[in-house]
Amino acid sequence: MTQNLAQDLEQCALPAALEAMGERWSFMILRGALSGIRHFEEFQSCLGIARNILANRLTRLVENGIMLRQPMQCDRRKVEYLLTEKGQELAPVMIALRQWGEKWGCAPPTCQVLADRRDGLPIRRITIQAHDGRSLGLGDLVWLGEDDMTSAVQEPAAA
Q1: Is 71 a member of any domain?
Q2: Is residue 108 part of a domain?
Q3: What is the Cα–Cα distance from 49 to 19, expressed in whole angstroms?
Q4: 103 in a domain, yes or no?
């Protein structure tokens, strides 16, 4: 069991995902991009990040397919940074981290609340959900290998 777990942890996607993102500044850039920031100068002024660090992190995010660097339509001499589909799919991760920070006192009480644009109501907390929408706790989870998943999917159909 321990050997299989160690082998599974070696093949886990989490370390590679963290490597693709980099470190704190990459997450802060991503937060800005999710909020609509697109230009180098905007990232720099909003984040208070040094130009060389910002340039390095943006390059890394582009190389990892999280952001796209493209000339602006109105002025081809200027560029904008846009989230790719891969980058947009990091939104739930970022929201979950923020909600965790809010819950455990990592943010000031006056922090803005993320809300639904349509009705202005705060969004629900990010949860782990089963295929049928039930909320799950850690005790409800189990790691399955590829063979286990195939048999688990086939068993209900046979019943």
Answers
A1: yes
A2: no
A3: 20
A4: no
Residue 21 CA to residue 27 CA, distance in Å, equals: 7
Chain-centroid distance, C-alpha 103: 18
Tally of domains in the chain: 1
Q: How far is CA 103 from CA 64, 75, 90, in A?
A: 31, 43, 20
Question: DSSP string of 11-65?
Answer: T-SHHHHHHHH-SHHHHHHHHHHHTT--SHHHHHHHHT--HHHHHHHHHHHHHTT
pLDDT tens digit string along 75-96? 888 899 999 999 999 999 999 9
Residues in the chain: 159
In-domain check, residue 156? no
Q: How far apart are CA 93 and CA 98, in angstroms?
A: 9
**Unique residue bearing structure tokens 């993102």:** 21
Choose among 99, 78, 30, 88: nearest CA to 58.
30
User: Which conformational region is residue 105 in: left (phi greater than 0), alpha (psi within -120 to 50 degrees), or beta?
Assistant: left
At 38-71, the pLDDT tens digits run 999 999 999 999 999 999 999 999 999 999 999 9
Domain extent, residue 77, equals 1-89
CB-based contact 68:82 (threshold 8 Å): yes
